[in-house]
Amino acid sequence: MFHLQKATQVTSAESDQKGDDTLLGLAEHYRYPPRPAEGPGAAAPFVRANMVSSIDGAATHDGKSGGLGGDGDKTVFRVLRGLADVILVGAGTAITEGYRRPQPDTAFAGLREENGQAPAPALALVSRSLSIPLDYPPLAHPETVVLTCASAPADRRAALVDAGATLIDCGDDNVETSKLIETCGDRGRPRVLCEGGPSLLGSIIADDLLDELCLTTSPHLVGGRAGRIATHAADDSDDGALALKGMTPAAIITDDDGYLFMRWLRHGRSSIH
Ligand SMILES: NC(=O)c1ccc[n+]([C@@H]2O[C@H](COP(=O)([O-])OP(=O)(O)OC[C@H]3O[C@@H](n4cnc5c(N)ncnc54)[C@H](OP(=O)(O)O)[C@@H]3O)[C@@H](O)[C@H]2O)c1
C-alpha cells in the first residue's frame, strides 16, 4: 500500500508577509509532545535534532551547513529554537558556524510564557578536549554550560573556569551521551534541540536517545567528499554496523524554493497532532 503524502506548503514569501502569524502557524507543526506540569514526566527530556542535508546526503557545502540553507530553512531553524529549552551542540560546530548566545525571540514570547519556559533557550556546548577559545562570547554567560567529562585536560578546565565558563561533567573517561541528556532535564531544560554536528548526533543515535529528527533536504546535489549528518566510530569497524532504528514520518512541509522539511519521530512515539 502506498500513500501519496500531500505536503503542507509554507512559502518563504508568506513567512515575510505574515511575520509572527506564520512563525506561530509553523510552530504548531513542530510542537513538542505535551508534558505534565509536575511529577516525574515533567522533567523527562525529549530529544529533537535539526539538521540539513543535500539531496545526495552531504551535510556541508564548502565546510559549513549554512551553504545548504535557504530562507525557509532559516525560518524553521528559528521556529525550532523558539520552542526549545536548550540547544545542545558540539563545541566544534558552535565555533565553526559562529554560534552566538540565543536571544529571546518576541514571536515566541507568549508561547514560551504559557509553557513556563525561559525567554530564550540556553546553549549547551559539548566538548571533551575543552579547546574552546577563551574569548568565545557565549562562554561566560550564566545560562551557557560546557558539558564535558572528568578526564578532560585539567589546564583547559582551569582556564575555562577562569574565563567564567560553567563546566559540568557528564562521565569520567568520556562524555556519556545519556548523561548529556539527563543533565538537560535535571537543569529544567527538557525540550532538547540538538543542532549537531554529525559526531554528536551520531553518538545520540548510537545510544538510541533520539526522539525526533527534523531534516531539511536542500534542493541541491553536492557530490565530493562532504560527510553526512550523523557519524559514529562504530561505523568504521568491520563488524560494527549499528542497529537500524525505525522512524515514522510525522510531517512533510515544502517551500517555494524546493526545500523539503521533514519531521521523523521514533517508532512508538505518537505523532504530536
Ligand atoms: N548539516 C547539518 O545540519 C550540520 C549541523 C551541524 C554541523 N554541521 C557541520 O559539521 C561539521 C562538524 O562536524 P563534527 O562531526 O566535527 O561536529 P560536532 O558533532 O559538533 O563535533 C565537534 C566537536 O564537538 C565535540 N563532540 C561531539 N560529540 C561529542 C561526544 N559524543 N563526546 C564528546 N565531545 C563531542 C567534540 O569536541 P572536542 O573535540 O572539543 O572534544 C568534537 O570534536 C562542520 O563542518 C559543521 O558545519 C552540519
From TrEMBL:
Alphabetical list of PANTHER family matching this protein: 2,5-DIAMINO-6-RIBOSYLAMINO-4(3H)-PYRIMIDINONE 5'-PHOSPHATE REDUCTASE (PTHR38011:SF7), DIHYDROFOLATE REDUCTASE FAMILY PROTEIN (AFU_ORTHOLOGUE AFUA_8G06820) (PTHR38011)
Domain of life: Bacteria
Domain Bacterial bifunctional deaminase-reductase C-terminal residues, every copy: 45-234
Protein name according to UniProt: Dihydrofolate reductase family protein
Record field: compositional bias (Polar residues): 1-14
SUPFAM superfamilies: Dihydrofolate reductase-like
Species this protein is from: Gordonia westfalica
Pfam family name, one: RibD_C
Entries under InterPro entries matching the protein: DHFR-like_dom_sf (IPR024072), RibDG_C (IPR002734), Riboflavin_Biosynth_HTPR (IPR050765)
Alphabetical UniProt keywords: NADP, Oxidoreductase
NADP found in the keyword field: yes
Region (Disordered) location: 1-20
